[in-house]
């Protein structure tokens, strides 16, 4: 079976250190890959910003902010950030690799959690968030997708991409950041976030863990935002009667519409959680962070004190002391006080033998159970296998690889901007993840890029147009063009990959080019030729000269005409200048004393226009007495000469 790389990043060596192995996830701002740090010989997760965002300073600043915010935190419940840098035009972030699932995955599989499981996760989330708040950092994007449940039982908070310092209230004049379902009322109404906004998001997550749904739903984001701003989050027990009153009160406290009525930070909420935890657990010991995420993807139930399971080990203090084996009890001695009689000793010995048989049977039973469990999870139906890399494979080859790995395959279709139509674009669980042998797996067959509507950006500023076209791949360098109708810096047209005007609908991530106005071609007619040439060259145009011409109206050495060589005009196009030589002066013939008819003929032969007042019938009988201008004077060729004559009958 032939194999093809998942995408061009697979196998690439970044910054001479990080060898990319496989893709883990893809988001709106970046893609996360599994990589090997060749220097330290360990697996890491490397987050790489999408190429079409690399030139956007806003996204790049937010990306670097994530690294700085997370790097300031050192806490067991916060994902560690190891490195951040740039390789060529590619910004990247290196993080701790945590194989496992997210809280969102857990809720998709199990809908809602028990109060004890909710407390386990909430304790870890609040502990990590308390460390962030103590460091002066507001997360601003808390949601189940950012709570990671590792296979080894660790629970960590990640994705500080929207985090900002909280030395003062953090405000934004841009569109609301974060996921709308978890935004606090003050973020919706005023765009202001502080530690109490994170607490509101935590309260929404607790509600969702306990009920399996979000408190507010709507057809449009603004409808959900309106409910956040105007309604009080209901108690989880209205949807799930089994929710303890202590958790009802905790949700109401953390989701109060008034920020001042909420916990001031995660530490205060964590302290309250640990106060009410014994009541929620009904006297059972807190197993936070000792509770592991089972291989099947769900949290183990809290164990009683001293209990030990394959998924959970509970310790009291540093360790639980072994339970002492009780000594055998003997019947009381006889009346003589000489010690136990023979019958009592025989009974005690028989009791010890029977107890030994039971212990042996129990040991054999436990040994059999352990062996059976080991077979079931190691080689039997309960064992786990890695999902093969099948992206860009044909469906038949990919299906064969999945069946060979022990999975049942169901086909589905989805669009993909990177995988060609008809090839496999991925699976659920994704390639590289662990899944139970014999479990059902969905294989996605690409239908090619989705055809989506192209926003109308003609006339918009270039930066705004690029933001609106973020679903497409817009060339970093725009095509510049002169335009008298579109202001400089605004979009004249959007071109498809073949150079034609883009249609109303286009392929997702398809290549586009922007034609941007650089203003009008400078008007230079009537200006001094040297000034005109300097102005045109400053605008990025080239200048050539035609033969100069005489002109009675345009002064000498001034531009008579400026002709464009191209249409439309772009930087580098040619402008042909025609420069005036000034008026064409010639001597006026001296016709005084000649007949009017002869004088007129002589002046017209000299290329002058003639003006006179006598009727034409008298021209042969009149003599010229004067001209204006006078004879021998210089006058522009083609100008009018006035002739005065007198009859000589």
UniProtKB/TrEMBL annotation:
Mark the transmembrane ranges.
357-378
Give me the ranges of the annotated region Disordered.
414-437
Q: Where is the Protein kinase domain?
A: 18-280
CDD domains (alphabetical): PASTA_pknB, STKc_PknB_like
Gene Ontology biological process terms from the UniProt entry: negative regulation of fatty acid biosynthetic process
Tell me which Pfam families the record gives.
PASTA (PF03793), Pkinase (PF00069)
EC number in record: 2.7.11.1
Record's signal peptide: none
Q: Taking every annotated instance into account, which residue ranges of this chain make up the domain PASTA?
A: 380-447, 582-646
List UniProt keywords, sorted A-Z. Answer: ATP-binding, Kinase, Membrane, Nucleotide-binding, Serine/threonine-protein kinase, Transferase, Transmembrane, Transmembrane helix
| Enzyme superclass (EC) | transferase
GO molecular function terms here? Answer: ATP binding; protein serine/threonine kinase activity
List the catalysed reactions: L-seryl-[protein] + ATP = O-phospho-L-seryl-[protein] + ADP + H(+); L-threonyl-[protein] + ATP = O-phospho-L-threonyl-[protein] + ADP + H(+)
Q: Which NCBIfam families match?
A: PknB_PASTA_kin
Q: Which PANTHER family match?
A: MITOGEN-ACTIVATED PROTEIN KINASE KINASE KINASE 20-RELATED (PTHR43289), SERINE_THREONINE-PROTEIN KINASE YBDM-RELATED (PTHR43289:SF34)
Q: What is this protein called?
A: non-specific serine/threonine protein kinase
């Amino acid at each position: 079976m032939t194999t093809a790389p998942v995408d061009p990043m697979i196998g690439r060596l970044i910054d001479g250190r990080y060898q990319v192995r496989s893709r883990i996830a893809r988001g709106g701002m970046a893609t996360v890959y599994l990589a090997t740090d060749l220097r330290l010989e360990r697996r890491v997760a490397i987050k790489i910003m999408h190429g079409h965002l690399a030139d956007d300073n806003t996204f790049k600043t937010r990306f670097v902010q994530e690294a700085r915010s997370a790097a300031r935190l050192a806490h067991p419940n916060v994902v560690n950030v190891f490195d951040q840098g740039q390789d060529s035009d590619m910004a990247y972030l290196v993080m701790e690799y945590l194989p496992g699932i997210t809280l969102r995955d857990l809720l998709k599989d199990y809908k809602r959690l028990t109060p004890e499981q909710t407390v386990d996760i909430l304790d870890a989330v609040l502990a990590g968030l308390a460390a962030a708040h103590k460091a002066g950092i507001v997360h601003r994007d808390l949601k189940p997708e950012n709570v990671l449940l590792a296979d080894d039982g660790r629970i960590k908070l990640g994705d500080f991409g929207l985090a900002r310092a909280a030395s003062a209230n953090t405000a934004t004049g841009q569109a609301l950041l974060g996921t709308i379902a978890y935004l606090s009322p003050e973020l919706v109404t005023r765009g202001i976030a502080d530690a109490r906004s994170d607490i509101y998001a935590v309260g929404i997550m607790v509600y969702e863990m306990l009920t399996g749904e979000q408190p507010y739903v709507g057809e449009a984001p603004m409808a959900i935002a309106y409910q956040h701003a105007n309604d009080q989050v209901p108690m989880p027990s209205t949807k799930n009667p089994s929710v303890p009153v202590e958790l009802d009160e905790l949700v109401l406290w953390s989701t109060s519409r008034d920020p001042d009525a909420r916990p001031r930070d995660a530490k205060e909420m964590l302290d309250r959680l640990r106060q009410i935890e014994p009541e929620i657990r009904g006297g059972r010991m807190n197993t936070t962070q000792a509770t592991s995420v089972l291989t099947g993807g769900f949290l183990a139930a809290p164990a009683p004190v001293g209990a030990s399971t394959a998924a959970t080990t509970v310790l009291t203090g540093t360790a639980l002391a072994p339970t002492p084996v009780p000594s055998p009890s003997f019947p009381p001695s006889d009346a003589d006080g000489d010690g136990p009689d023979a019958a009592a000793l025989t009974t005690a010995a028989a009791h010890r033998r029977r107890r030994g048989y039971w212990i042996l049977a129990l040991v054999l039973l436990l040994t059999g159970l352990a062996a059976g469990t080991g077979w079931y999870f190691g080689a039997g139906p309960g064992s786990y296998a890695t999902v093969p890399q099948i992206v860009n494979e044909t469906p038949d080859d990919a299906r064969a690889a999945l069946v060979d790995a022990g999975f049942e395959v169901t086909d589905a279709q989805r669009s993909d901007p990177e995988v060609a139509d008809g090839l496999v674009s991925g699976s659920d669980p994704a390639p590289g993840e662990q899944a139970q042998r014999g479990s059902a797996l969905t294989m996605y067959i690409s239908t090619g890029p989705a055809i989506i509507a192209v926003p109308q950006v003609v006339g918009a500023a270039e930066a705004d147009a690029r933001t609106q076209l973020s679903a497409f791949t817009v060339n970093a360098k725009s095509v510049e063009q002169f335009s008298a109708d579109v202001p400089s810096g605004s979009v004249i047209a959007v071109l498809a990959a073949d150079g034609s005007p883009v249609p109303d609908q286009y392929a997702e991530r398809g290549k586009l080019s922007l034609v941007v106005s650089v203003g009008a071609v400078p008007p230079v007619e009537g200006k001094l030729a040297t000034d005109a040439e300097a102005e045109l060259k400053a605008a990025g145009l080239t200048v050539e000269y035609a033969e100069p011409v005489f002109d009675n109206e345009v002064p000498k050495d001034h531009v008579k005409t400026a002709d464009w060589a191209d249409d439309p005009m772009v930087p580098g196009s040619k402008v042909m200048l025609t420069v005036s030589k000034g008026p064409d002066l010639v001597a006026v013939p001296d016709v005084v004393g000649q007949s009017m008819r002869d004088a007129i003929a002589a002046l017209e032969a000299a290329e002058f226009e003639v003006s006179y007042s006598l009727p034409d019938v008298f021209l042969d009988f009149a003599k010229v007495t004067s001209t204006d201008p006078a004879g021998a004077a210089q006058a522009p060729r083609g100008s009018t000469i006035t002739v005065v004559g007198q009859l000589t009958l």
